[in-house]
Design goal:
Helix content is 11%, strand content 29%. The protein has two helices and four strands. The protein is mostly beta strands. The protein has one domain. The strands form two sheets. A two-stranded antiparallel ribbon has the order 1-2.
Length: 96
């Protein structure tokens, strides 16, 4: 397998929600990338989708049931969703 050498950005941008009542009005937000570690995989994302579970999270609807995931209530205030991604692997950590 071959990997591409790239210059990594000092920030990422994504559409995020800060208020569950505004779940359908995402705003472009900047994030600082975390340090790449031995258990990480770096993927250049070409496209991503948002599934129904993420909409429940954005709307803070998980907090109305007995599920452990209540991130909109007790987690980060700003959430950038989209875990269904298609992309190209750029780098793999040593523990893979």
């Amino acid at each position: 397998m071959s990997f591409t050498t790239v210059n990594y950005p000092t920030e990422f941008k994504g559409f995020a929600i800060s208020d569950p009542s505004e779940w359908n009005h995402p705003k472009l937000t900047s994030y600082e990338p975390k340090k790449f570690e031995d258990h990480d995989v770096d993927i250049e994302i070409e496209c991503c989708g948002v599934c129904a579970s993420e909409l429940f999270t954005l709307k803070n609807e998980w907090s109305h049931d007995d599920m452990a995931c209540k991130s909109a209530t007790v987690g980060p205030k700003t959430q950038c969703v989209g875990h269904e991604v298609v992309g190209k692997v750029l780098r793999v950590g040593d523990n893979w």
